[in-house]
Design goal:
single chain, Spore Coat Polysaccharide Biosynthesis Protein SpsA, Chain A, alpha/beta, seven-stranded mixed β-sheet
Amino acid sequence: MITQTQSPIDLSVLIPVYNEVENVEPLHAELDLVLRASPWRYELIFVDDGSTDGTHQKLAAIQARDPEHARLVLLRRNCGQTAALSAALDQARGAILIPIDGDRQNDPADIPQLIAELERGHDVVSGWRKDRHDAFVTRKIPSWIANRLVARLSGVPLHDFGCTLKAYRRRVLEGVRLYGEMHRFIPIFAAWQGARVAELVVNHRPRTAGRTKYGLGRTFNVVLDLILIRFLQRYSQRPLHFFGRFGLWSFGLGVMSFVAMLYFKYLFPWPALFWDASLKAKPFVETPLPSLTVMFFLAGGMSILMGIQAEVVMRTYYESQAKTTYLLSEVRTGADSELK
């Protein structure tokens, strides 16, 4: 979690890597070439996410060779890209934060353009890999579908949420905790909190060394995380409204099922095809309606109880940390006007 800092660092480049032994040296060389010629005071934070191929040793050599700029964070085991990026964020000291992939498919030469876009008044600039060099069936198509779905449900009109190369003002990420695959949704959280989000076409290069760590199965994780953030957007401060609504619908269906059960028992017997035609009325136990009635009433009661529990957890979260349920932008008073 990022906290306020007085460090004179202008720019922190965050680089999570996992088994990229062939890529870290040339990546460092490219970053050094781009940033040494710039006016920014910068740091390069490499996070080794439990690599087993010698990446750690390569990064240690880089850090020893460039102690002024390179910093190395080692995780005890492979925790995933989001966790590695979160570790980098915790160590970052820059006023501007730029995550970049460690496989060299992102181009460090795009960093000055991202910063220039920030300086035009934006808080977040997200990269768009418009000409993407990845497998068409297993990467491009699932990515296109997922991006369209995320943009539609979140209301943030970006084309490429999965592009790691982004630029953030530090204040946008203050207090942010990342879980699951949530790193790709940071622009959404930022936009919901009033940040100005822009998109910039960036260069995307084919992988020349190492193996990709992403597969088709990751798309399903993205969809599940999207459901979570949609819930957090609409119901994080009123979870009872979500669970309670579901519970009331279940109670309603239970009442309807119970009424139908009585109707078919006493007023209009169930079709004779399903029971002995010699019986005048179908017994309760020979229809699914009693089971449905019980199921709907139980689901309704459990949903409302879950909603109450979620309300207690939510209020404990806000009150224990003295968090507010609003996002304050500015306060103006008469005294301020007089001072001016």
